[in-house]
Amino acid sequence: MIQVTKTFLPPQEEYQAILQRAWNTNWITNRGVLVKELEGALKNYLGISKILATANGTLPLQIAIKALGLTGEIITTPFSYVATTSSIVWEGCSPVFVDIHPDYLTIDETKIEAAITPKTTAILATHVFGNPCHVEAIQAIADAYGLKVIYDGAHAFGVTYKGQSIFNYGDLSTCSFHATKLFHTGEGGALFTNSEALYNTLFYHHNFGHQGQESFQGLGINAKMNELQAAMGLAVLPYIEGILETRCNIVRAYNVAFKDMILKPLKLRVDTQWNYSYYPVIFETEAQLLNVKLALNAKHIYPRRYFYPSLNNLPYVTKQNTPISESISNRILCLPLFHGHLDDGMTKIIEIVKAKLC
Ligand SMILES: *Cc1c(COP(=O)(O)O)cnc(C)c1O
């Protein structure tokens, strides 16, 4: 069986050796040495100035909205994972969907201004499949209208844009370290900002609002990463270059195999150093997609319809029209992609896709 992704598991003895340090101190949460060490290692690896490790990649979105004091309407993308929209609604704000660019799949920055109203307080956009949003245009709009900018960077681990970490753009960015993501801690995530003041607010929000043991700076929740999660991250991180390399090889093989076909691959923004996080292909019709999916499933190969459905169709949002996102959602399929070699499985996937489309 081949799934759309496969979690990279480090050698168990290496994970255990790191866990042993938590056993030695009898300290498994509340920002112990391992969480701090992981934060330091990630700062180095990613080239960012501030990071706050969290329990998953969804709480950071909610905390971001809270910390920036957002109310009213938040302009967002309908083409993302449900957490992007649900976080907005969970925080009592209204998502206003702006359609996506048909090739880049990120929010169409040229359509943002038309969606701004007196109630708009922020833009929350996703670097879809690790492809950067048009961060310059978005920042210019935000500056002109006094809006905050949050990036859901759940897919964007290790991506650089114009030579620096994609997490350096916007007021703040988030990432997910879920087991299905490129870099993982089982469950986990992070917040990134370059503002000292905002970092302090994020910090107390993620730890019940504590300011020391006996006083509270303000409202908080519990979004702390624990030591067991951090140990996994520390065990995975040394392998990240190898993971990227093997993923890159598979992406190249897919690209070559599908070069002259009707399938449309993801178009990366220029000046992007990508992370090979997903391999989406866009079909001409949904019928073609279903045909290929069925043929793959018959051989126990399970690609995923990311992202489907388009989020403007969620039952708890006001119905809004974003035809490009809906059309792409109906026709996009992510093919299996993970660390490992281009074995028989990948070759079979290529064969089946070709056979079904020719
Ligand atoms: C995975 C994902 C999330 C949520 O991350 P979790 O760690 O699973 O909570 C948020 N946004 C996007 C775009 C994602 O793909």
Read across the widest sheet, the strand sequence of neighbours is 2-10-9-6-5-3-4
SS-derived structural category: alpha/beta
**CATH superfamily heading of the largest domain:** Type I PLP-dependent aspartate aminotransferase-like (Major domain)
**Low-confidence residue ranges:** none
Q: CATH architecture of the largest domain, please?
A: 3-Layer(aba) Sandwich
Bound molecules: pyridoxal-5'-phosphate
**Shape, please?**
globular
CA gyration radius, whole angstroms:
21 Å
Content of β-strand? 15-25%
How many independent structural domains? 2
Order of helices and strands: EHHEHEHEEHEEEEEHEEHHEEEHEHEH
Task: Note the main sheet.
Answer: 7 strands, mixed
CATH topology of the largest domain: Aspartate Aminotransferase, domain 2
User: Would you state the CATH class of the largest domain?
Assistant: Alpha Beta
What is the assembly state of the chains in this entry? Answer: single chain
Name the helicity range. Answer: 25-40%
Q: Count the helices. How many?
A: 11
Mean pLDDT: 97
| Count of distinct strands | 17
